[in-house]
């Protein structure tokens, strides 16, 4: 079982509290007044901390057993709705699909990201995302959806495959690599080619990605999160990196054409500053999530012989049917590989928890029939680390079992729409889900077909100190070239 690192308080909990502090400052007295003026006729969720002793016990569990174990304990004790209150900051946890519908699909006027994502403004710019009003932001989300919709993905397939083939052609006949580092490099090249265009891929990929790295690293430092506009060395490095990226993007002609061609409802085309901001947002959303996911798939597959064999068998079957060449449609036949990716994401979701701010009281009802009112002003949280491990939904949740998503079992449908949330859901669902699956399948089908792989290092622990919890340390994998033998063509 992949337990939370006992010595490290995960980054996500830090974010919860940072967000809570920021929110607290921003909402200040207003929030307190609003909450206290709420009606008391409906029951409030059970409060986890009712005195100093329970606060100490909770902190003790957090520090000794970790974030997931701490939440799991509360879930077992109180059920699917409970409020944790730290230093007067209240966060209500909604665990499981029965109580999550409003969280994911409530209207922006009633439930929103609040100011949790304000840290992205200096990173992406004031012209996009959380720097603009909600109506403009919704239109910009549509630009992403239009750009990445499945119908447009076919045009990314050939360049993506070329990048993958070219990259692995550099590997020798056999050897040992750090899979995490290799996939990080490869995904940088794919993102450059498919999301930024050929010119950047060919002429300045290193500069763009080292600048992008400076931008994201410095944007996510604690000081930048807490004081985004203070003139600290971190924010200065962040702003310098952003300015450099803007000037590079301004000179490049073949940046993702779809985004550049996007138009607002009133017919206004996107500006240069908007395209730059949207591209930075896209790169941020795309690269980090996929790097960690592709590495986790490797670690999981290579430590489960049965799954590895089943994945190979599927590739063999496809090779027998279509020959060595793969195209976009071939990827759609890789249903077991699809399940392997989905299962790795269930166990290692890049976002471990989602946070929202409540602007209008709402009620939730648990499966046991308890009804709770969540008051305006509360922070609410949907913890994927628990949602994805509920035993009455996911059988033996600590076991890597891709078949749980296969036809006939489909455990993610047991509880309805919000049972599986690796890509979010509802209003803020990931725009790049289909692109992400395509990318990871292109990489892993190539690896399975062309290499015999073994995990040399122990199964990696999770680095909870990262915003996106990735495998800790090197993921050492040995490889040996092979060609999947072609049997008789199957009918
Ligand atoms: C395994 C890979 C990925 C995972 C697990 C993932 C997950 C997510 C999640 C959970 C959200 C919503 C966050 C929220 O509720 O605020 C999101 C948003 C988003 N993702 Fe992904 N993502 C992945 C890959 C990608 C890729 C490859 C792209 C682009 C090529 C992408 C583009 C986006 C965009 C544009 C948004 C923002 C949508 C909006 O604001 O309307 N993602 N992603």
From TrEMBL:
GO biological process: methylation; sterol biosynthetic process
Chain sites annotated for binding heme: 430
Cofactor: heme
Keyword annotations of the record: Heme, Iron, Lipid biosynthesis, Lipid metabolism, Membrane, Metal-binding, Methyltransferase, Monooxygenase, Oxidoreductase, Steroid biosynthesis, Steroid metabolism, Sterol biosynthesis, Sterol metabolism, Transferase
Keyword set includes Oxidoreductase: yes
A Pfam short name: p450
One annotated GO molecular function: iron ion binding
CC per GO annotation: membrane
Stored InterPro entries: CYP450_sterol_14alpha_dmase, Cyt_P450, Cyt_P450_CS, Cyt_P450_E_grp-IV, Cyt_P450_sf
Chief localisation class: membrane
Gene3D superfamilies reported for this sequence: Cytochrome P450
Pathway the protein takes part in: Steroid biosynthesis; zymosterol biosynthesis; zymosterol from lanosterol: step 1/6
Key word Iron present: yes
Reactions catalysed, as given in the entry: a 14alpha-methyl steroid + 3 reduced [NADPH--hemoprotein reductase] + 3 O2 = a Delta(14) steroid + formate + 3 oxidized [NADPH--hemoprotein reductase] + 4 H2O + 4 H(+)
Family: Belongs to the cytochrome P450 family.
Biological role: Catalyzes the 14-alpha demethylation of obtusifoliol to 4 alpha-methyl-5 alpha-ergosta-8,14,24(28)-trien-3 beta-ol.
Protein name as annotated: Obtusifoliol 14-alpha demethylase
Organism of derivation: Sorghum bicolor (Sorghum)
């Amino acid at each position: 079982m992949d337990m939370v690192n006992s010595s490290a308080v995960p980054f996500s909990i830090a974010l919860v509290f940072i967000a809570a502090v920021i929110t607290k400052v921003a909402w200040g007295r207003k929030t307190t007044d609003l909450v206290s003026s709420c009606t008391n006729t409906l029951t409030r969720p059970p409060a986890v901390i009712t005195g100093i002793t329970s606060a100490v016990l909770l902190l003790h569990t957090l520090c000794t057993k970790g974030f997931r174990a701490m939440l799991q304990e509360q879930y077992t004790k109180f059920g699917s709705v409970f409020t944790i209150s730290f230093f007067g900051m209240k966060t209500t946890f909604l665990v499981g699909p029965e109580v999550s519908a409003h969280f994911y699909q409530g209207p922006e006027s009633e439930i929103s990201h609040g100011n949790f994502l304000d840290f992205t403004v200096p990173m992406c710019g004031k012209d996009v995302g959380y720097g603009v009003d909600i109506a403009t932001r919704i239109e910009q989300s549509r630009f992403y959806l239009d750009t990445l919709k499945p119908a447009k993905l076919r045009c990314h397939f050939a360049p993506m495959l070329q990048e993958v083939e070219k990259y692995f052609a550099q590997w020798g006949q056999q050897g040992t690599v750090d899979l995490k580092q290799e996939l990080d490099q490869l995904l940088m090249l794919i993102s450059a080619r498919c999301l930024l265009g050929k010119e950047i891929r060919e002429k300045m990929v290193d500069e763009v990605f080292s600048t992008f790295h400076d931008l994201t690293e410095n944007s996510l430092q604690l000081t930048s999160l807490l004081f985004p506009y203070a003139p600290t060395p971190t924010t200065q490095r962040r702003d310098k990196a952003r300015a450099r990226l803007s000037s590079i993007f301004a000179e490049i002609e073949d940046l993702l054409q779809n985004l550049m061609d996007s138009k607002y409802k009133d017919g206004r085309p996107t500006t240069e500053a908007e395209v730059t901001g949207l591209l930075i947002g896209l790169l941020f959303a795309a690269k980090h999530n996929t790097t960690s996911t592709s590495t986790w798939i490797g670690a999981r597959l290579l430590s489960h012989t049965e799954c590895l064999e089943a994945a190979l068998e599927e590739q063999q079957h496809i090779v027998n049917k279509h020959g060595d060449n793969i195209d976009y449609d071939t990827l759609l036949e890789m249903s077991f590989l699809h399940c392997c990716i989905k299962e790795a994401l269930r166990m290692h979701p890049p976002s471990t928890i989602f946070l929202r701010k409540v602007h209008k009281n709402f009620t939730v009802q648990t499966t046991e029939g308890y009804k709770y009112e969540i008051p305006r002003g509360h922070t609410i949280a949907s913890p994927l680390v628990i949602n994805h491990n509920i035993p009455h939904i996911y059988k033996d949740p600590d076991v890597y079992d891709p078949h749980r998503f296969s036809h006939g079992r489909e455990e993610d449908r047991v509880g309805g729409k919000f049972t599986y949330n690796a890509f979010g859901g509802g209003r803020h669902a990931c725009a790049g889900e289909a692109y992400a699956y395509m990318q990871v399948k292109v990489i892993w089908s190539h690896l399975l077909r062309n290499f015999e792989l073994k995990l040399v290092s122990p199964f990696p622990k999770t680095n909870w100190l990262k915003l996106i919890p990735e495998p800790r340390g090197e993921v050492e994998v040995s490889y040996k070239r092979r060609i999947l033998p072609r049997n008789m063509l199957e009918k």
